[in-house]
Amino acid sequence: MRNKCLVAGLVLVCVLPLAGCGSATPSADAAPASPPIVSTTEADRVLTAYDVGNNKVNSTADAAGLAKIESTPLRVASEAELEANKVLDQSIPLIKSTDQRFMIPSRSADLPWFVSISTRLHGGVVATNQTYTVFKRQDKGAPWLAAYSLTPPADVQVPAVTLNGASAATAVNDFGDLALQPDELAQRIFAHYKQDVAGRDIFGTSAVLDDQLGNGFKAALRVLRGKGTQLVRTVKPGPPQAFALRTADGGALVFSTSTVVDVLKPLDPSGTVSLSAGSDEAALLGKAAGATAPGFTITRQQNFLTHIPTQASGEPVVVLAYTDFPVSVR
User: Fold this and answer.
1) Within 10 Å of residue 89's Cβ, how many Cβ atoms?
2) Which parts of the sequence belong to the DUF8094 domain (predicted)?
């Protein structure tokens, strides 16, 4: 699916580039190494099958078919995107993953999962960066499902993960040594850009967090206010769905999700607010030509790829990539 962030009610679209890099480096551990939970050959088959299934779902707008290839949180946004595309009569180019690599935890991981890193062809056009996709399954007999798909900008350096002697990555389940707990990310990221505290909190200043997400949010507030509309955003509590790999510097590469709720109201109590024609928000109401009402409540899903260092390092937390898509409008 597309990695697109769209601010409610605006034609302010920022199409995120399709991925970063981040090679893995073996650790110096001399202890017996536990092998990867799957082989790279099987992981490659999983990625290829996902591309085939994804293209089929996209070409037929088969929302029910998403359950066969994706799980939450990715499937939630994909279902909304399929619905919006159907209303807007938009098609999604065929996707093919190339130059694939894999970060596969050892068999000691509690839940079977791994990460693919690939360059994508979109309708024959080669991306200049890479996409990180998390695949998981409930048990050995269950199908592999894509849970996250994020694409850091091409100039973002994704930290290398550490590998054991069997070329297996380490899944992080105990976050006690990290500078920030993954289940804090949603609220802390929101507080960072809402309060405009770049360089003054635990996050390192980055183009992804400050220029794209932060400045995009501030621009939306200004533009909407100029149209007589107030935007109030809150973070909706929800269960953490994080996946994390230990990085070579001792920190963790974390995939996490966040749900935010945007409430649009007129500054004039007797007025109305509008969603732009052709926007995904209006399309989710079934109104491709736009919509006007006394107010709207828009639920958005934001997914993040973040590097969280150890507490002892004193280094900042860095958001490497994010996606943003409306999942419901009322």
Assistant:
1) 8
2) 36-323
